[in-house]
Structure formats: C-alpha cells, structure tokens
C-alpha cells in the first residue's frame, strides 16, 4: 500500500513523521517526493545504485550573430521573456517557459533550445529498505513529472523486492507536485499544526484531497502549543468527515533526533511520541 | 525598495518575519505594501485587520479545437512542448489537457486550418486589501486544483510598482515560484532554522541567489533548537546574520492566534525597525 504524507503548510513535521513511519520495523520503500527540497536522504544516507537524468524543461538561447533583429519572436512570446537590450534581442532565462515557439518561427534559425538536465532521480538502499528520491535543480518547474518518476520507480522496486509498504514524503503547498504525490495512493496523512495559518492551509489541502477523492487522515503535530486552535482544527475535521489519526505534543526530541540523523523511533524507541506514531501508522495501515 | 522574505525549507518563519517586518515599517514609513506571493497557501492576511478593496481575476487562455475544421494532421501536437494535446489520428480523436497547457500559443500558430480558438480558464485571484491603518496588503491565491501559481505571482508583482517599500513573502523552495518572486527584489532575507534540513535547504537557496546575483542575508528562527553547523556555514560564506529569533512559547502562541508578536513584545519592535534601517542603508539605493 502507498501512504502519502503531506502538509499544505511547510514545517509542520511532515518529514519527521515520514522518517518515523519508515523505521517502525517492517521493510518499506521510502519515496521522497519533496523534490524541490529533498531532505530525508540526510537522515538515511541511502546508496546511489541508480541515477537517472530528468529533463525538467527547456530554455531558449539566441545566437546574436544570426539574429537580424526582426523582433518577430518578441511578438509571439507569451511570457514576456524576449526584450531589446541596447538594440539587441535578448531572452531572459528566468521568464522563458521553454515552449519553443520562438525557435520555430525565427526566420534565420537564430534561436535554439537547451535541455535543463541538472535534475536527478536516485534509487538505492537505506537501513530499513529501499529509498527513491528526486532532486529538482533550482529554478525548475514541472516538479509533478519528477514526482511521477519517483513514484513509478518506488512501485517497481516494491514489486521486485516484495515490499508491501511505500511511504511517500510529499511537498508543501497544493500545486502540481502535491497532486502528483497523492493521486492513486491508498491513504493520505495531512500533518498540521495548531496555528491559524495551519488551519487555513489544512482547509485548502483537504479540499484538494476531496477533489481527488482520497482517503484522508489528519495528524495535529505540536498540538499543545495552542490547545484552543487544536480543538478548532478537530472540530473542522469532524464537520468535514475527516478522521483524526492522532495528536502529538511539541517536543524538542524531534529536532534532537534529526541532528543525530535519526528518526524519533530510532532515537527514542520507547518514548510516548514513538508509541503514538506506531499506533497512528497501524491505524492508517489497518483501516480499509 | 523591494525586500523578498524567502526560505528553502517550509515552515521556518517566512510569514512570521514578513508580517512583523511589514507591521513595524508601516509605523514609520509610508507607501508600503506587503505582497503574499505564496499563492498556493497564502496566510499573511490572517495577521491584519483588513477590508477587501478589489479582486482581480487571473485567467489563462487554453485552446479549444473545432473538430469540424480539424484534419488531425498532428502539427499542433508536434508544436506543443508540454504534452497538452492528445491525438489519435486514425480514430479522429483530439483532446486538449487543460491542466498541462502553459498558454504559449504554439498550437494556434501551428494550425493551418483555423481550427484552434481560445477559452479563458480561471487560475485564481489577486486580492487587494486595505488595513485599518491605511496600509495595503495584496495576496495571490490560486484556485484549488490549479497546477502552477506562476501567472498569479507575475500578476501580483505587477501590482507593486506604485509602492516605495515592498515586502514580498515568497513561496517555499527554490523552484520557479521562488525565482519569479525574488527576481523583482533588491534584497532577499532568507529565514532558516539551525537543523540539518534547514541548513541543506539554506545552502541551495544561497547558491541559487548567487547565480542570480542577488544580495541576501539570513534570519535564524528557533535559534536555540538545533546545532551550530549553520553558523559555521554562514561564517565561511561571509553571509550576515540579521537577526536570531529563539523558540519562545510566547512568540509561538501569538503566531498561532494570528497576532503579531512585535505589537506585544516591544523589544522586537525595535529590533525589526533597526534591522530594516540597516538593510535600507546598506542595500537600498538601487532604485530609490
């Protein structure tokens, strides 16, 4: 089964929970789909048995020797990426979307496309199974496609190695990478925190899960930082028919574990937090 | 002067810094605006008492194919660099996948049979709010289910042109939404936390800003939860630490309720103002 852990709001503890789920006992495939800021490899230091180049998109480059300054490309570009700088046509790398239209319509073939080939997908072993992760090179879009590649690889590895559980650590937000991280999984766990921002983001994250008809759970992390807000989040979940998987207290042990490159389960296996996380994991796994 | 508040890792305190910095400078400076560029999960408005002044809708042109004119020649399919057109010529099936379309217009240019027209699809809004103090806060807000926030961020940044002081609350990460936001800024404040995850993402942000020739400095949030690696790194890179905010249940509590801690804890009011004055003195002469 595939379990995706997402959060909407960043910094709620999503990766700490993913790391804990990955080290409870049974072997898992861990897929770090937060390709824009992949971090779990720092804790698990996986082997790099496989590396795959991912083409995240293209950028247009202009050969100024061939350009006749006809400016046709400027009229066609919908991204305001082409402008005149000191009477020369220039293409901005930041604004270029890689659609290739300028290169197609240029009468002197002065514009060529270059692939953005710095992003990678890695797969290998970690101490409790297999790990797959993606690293999107800075400035790239299309992270959803890289997420799909990571997930496909994770499924393939799970099948080959007879591993039953895939843990997906998703990205923040509600955009294309999140959609790619949750579509088709068996359960989604949203990790939230008792702040008004947390609640706002949770509402939008639940909306996206409902849109794709996902089986959705909520975990309120650091719930004791504001118990009234935590109660409000619980009320909202009850009204929206979303199950609360559990509530965890604020605790610096999570940070201390991370500094030692361990999950909370590895750092303090018999702590109240670890027991609770194991219960939550079993609850999600065993609920049809 | 335009200052972007960014971070690689989510949840480090971008919004905490943006809202409090904006709050403090509006007391001493006029013609300020706060732009909430985290259009997937905007939250800045939570912290202010505001009235909605105007709503601007952001639409995207998506092609519509007139099947009575289409010859299924496949040229639009060849021109589309985003795989947004699906075609089975033998079965005379052609479909546009709206979610994948980037509105580049290449398919319309490709079509020799005048079979492609455009329809408008709603992506989200740019909402302008006026605070009770007369100050302006503008947020971008994607419609839930929209894949990319980029067109909304672009439209939002255009709104800021008439202001003297612009604070941009950036989306997390270092991918396209971050680049779009920081490109327009004179100076970037990176908010981080002293953990291995925080450091890893901070390095990526700093390297990305380096390639863009953007000046930046750092605020360390939850400064007492973590280790000292981040300080060693910043020291070796000669990057200034503008401020350290400790983990403090009082600050966390104000934040959780949607309140500005700089209004209640006067020492922070002074710290934010002093920090801003120093930034302006050091980095603020590029367009004023």
Task: Write out key terms for the chains shown.
heterodimer, A: 288 residues, alpha/beta, nine-stranded mixed sheet, two-stranded antiparallel ribbon, 11 helices, 36% helix, elongated, B: 288 residues, 10 helices
Concise overview:
With 288 residues, chain A is of the alpha/beta class.
* Percent strand of chain B: 25-35%
Give the oligomer, counting copies of the same chain as homo and different chains as hetero.
heterodimer
Number of helices of chain B: 10
Gyration radius of chain B, to the nearest Å? Answer: 22 Å
C-alpha end-to-end distance of chain B: 7 Å
Largest sheet of chain B: 9 strands, mixed
Task: Kindly describe this structure.
The complex is a heterodimer of chains A (288) and B (288). A nine-stranded mixed β-sheet of chain A has the order 3-8-9-2-10-1-11-12-13, with helices on both faces. In chain A, strands 4-7 form a two-stranded antiparallel sheet. Chain A has 288 residues and is of the alpha/beta class. In chain A, helix 5 (143-160) packs parallel to helix 6. Chain A has eleven helices and 13 strands. The longest helix of chain A has 18 residues, at 143-160. With 288 residues, chain B is an alpha/beta fold. Chain B has a nine-stranded mixed β-sheet with strand order 3-6-7-2-8-1-9-10-11, sandwiched between helices. At the A-B interface, helix 4, helix 7 and helix 9 of A face helix 5, helix 6 and helix 8 of B.
